[in-house]
Amino acid sequence: MIRPLLYLVSLCFFAGICGLFYLFLAAPEPRHIGLSETEGDAVRGTYIARMAGCIGCHTDSKGGGAQLAGGPAIETPFGVFYGPNITPDERTGLGRWTLQDFSDAMTAGQKPDGRRLYPVFPYTAYTLLTDQDLADLWAALKTVPAVTDRAPPNRLNALIDQRTLLIPWQTLFLTPGPFEPDPDRSEAWNRGAYIVEGPGHCGACHTPRNLLGGLEESRPLAGGEGSGGEKAPAITAAALEAEGWTAADIVAALRTGLTPDGDVLGGSMGAVVHGSTQHLTDEDRQAIATYLLSD
Ligand code: HEC
Ligand code: HEC
After folding, report:
1. Which of 217, 285, 226 is nearest to 251 (CA)?
2. Which ligand is nearest to the CA of 170?
3. Closest C-alpha residue for ligand 2 atom 21
4. For ligand 2, atom 7, which residue shows the shortest CA distance?
5. pLDDT tens readout for residues 203-258
6. Distance of CA 280 to the CA centre of its chain
7. pLDDT (tens digit, 9 = 90+) per residue, 28-82?
8. Which ligand has the shortest distance to the CA of 53?
9. Is 2 buried (19+), middle (13-18) or exposed (0-12) by CB count in 10 A?
């Protein structure tokens, strides 16, 4: 009796170790960016930076901090994070990074020394960015004045305060990009899909998360949490239609922050409108609405 049991236990143990090895070894590799630094356009990059909300998380506006020199506290169930200094400062910012280093951070959540980044930095969405948009963003970041400053260190729950744990996390929850357009859909739909799923990272708040903080990809945009635990409603086509939203209402709300009932979009959505969607072209806001309202 004992022998088969021992056999079974060691088999399970062995399978568990193999599983762990797999999770550590199968993490997605960074992709090679096929562009050089000179191929980026800073003006276009500034527009993508707005769309992607980089400034909000990396600038302590309330504390009077310099642009992109380090962000305000971001409260999550896993602890408090601070967006680091991403100005071109050599010591405390990205001054020594290459375009490839930047692409690795944005699309694979990896630092130049190979350490992994916490997904509160929404690289699971940014991984969809095209190489051209990455090069443009990088060109824009280089035009920002270099500031020597450090954001406070993250204050994380002891259990997850270990970047090595992010390797298996990435195996489970990072699906590498770039975005692939759907040839059966219109240009506007594809543009909207790119913005919502990629740079706009709408799912970071509007898609529910599992216990490990991964986005539940089977329930996209079905309602999640904004920063600090506030509720972000479902923005699926069905949910928006049930609430009576038309494409024109969505376009207007993303531009002005006002809902069809005259309410003001508050909390972190207020910040998204203020820092991001109000600066987009009407064409891009229309594309977002087209995508959100499609089945
Ligand atoms: C929701 C908040 C948020 C947004 C939006 C955001 N970031 Fe971050 N970012 C962070 C946090 C937090 C970290 C640090 C994560 C960590 O400690 O692992 C980070 C890390 C980074 C890093 C790595 C820096 C380093 O020194 O390791 C880069 C580069 C970066 N962000 C660039 C950007 C760019 C460019 C954008 C816009 C396209 C952006 N971020 C948008 C929160 C954000
Ligand atoms: C940082 C978190 C966050 C991000 C990112 C975010 N949202 Fe929101 N969103 C919210 C919250 C919170 C609300 C609820 C606001 C309220 O009730 O005042 C909301 C509300 C909305 C609403 C109104 C829905 C309704 O039924 O009232 C729409 C539409 C919307 N968001 C679209 C978007 C789109 C499109 C994006 C991406 C470009 C996006 N959101 C990104 C947090 C976020």
Report:
1. 285
2. 1
3. 269
4. 269
5. 999 999 999 999 999 999 999 998 778 999 999 999 999 999 999 999 999 999 99
6. 18
7. 999 999 999 999 999 999 999 999 999 999 999 999 999 999 999 999 989 999 9
8. 1
9. exposed
